[in-house]
Amino acid sequence: MSPPPLAEELNLCLCHGCGHACDLGLGAHQCERCGALLHARKADAITRGWAYLLGALVFYVPANLLPVMRTEMFGQGVESTIGSGVLEFWDAGAWDIALIIFIASIGVPAIKFFSLGLLLFTAQRRSAWARRQRSQLYRFIELVGYWSMLDVMVVALVAALVQMHGLGTIEPRPGILFFGLVVVLTMLSAMSFDPRLIWDSDPQQGGSVDGAGHQ
User: Fold this and answer.
1) Which parts pass through the membrane (predicted)?
2) Fewer CB near the last or first residue (10 Å), C or N of the chain?
3) Pairing of strands 69-73, 76-80
4) Are 86 and 107 contacting, i.e. CB atoms less than 8 angstroms apart?
């Protein structure tokens, strides 16, 4: 029993905007449903993925070293980094908020850095190792990305509650901006990656995709 034909063999292309299957054999360059430009593959998927990921790693350093908020209680002001903020919330008995910030600010970025680096490296090497698991890992990274700004929202919520009760003031500091850039760049890196690169055949089996994601 022969395997079913590939979309490439049928000149079909899936629109990245609306998911409509378009017939490239008719010379179409735009989706007939939404008008978006058609691409058989995400252009320069690996190159752009590495660029965004390395940019996120660069911004992650000041995001952890610079203060993310300034807390002023009873006339005394303290500037806190991500790490010291987690410890302060923990010592104050707000272990749930401390846990959320730790997971969202330290745990999730570390997982995303490692996972995206693994996906990009193995795709660039055209490795056949654990393809199904790597596809599942990519879907997990997409899911985690929706919660990446959770700690920023927690800081904003705590600041609003503190000021509302008149206990003091909490103001954002430059570290929160750099962390926001880290979140955006890791999301762009995940969006730039083409998971079909995981399943591309080896050179000996026919079919070739270069390191930039073109076919």
Assistant:
1) 50-69, 97-122, 143-164, 176-193
2) N
3) antiparallel
4) no
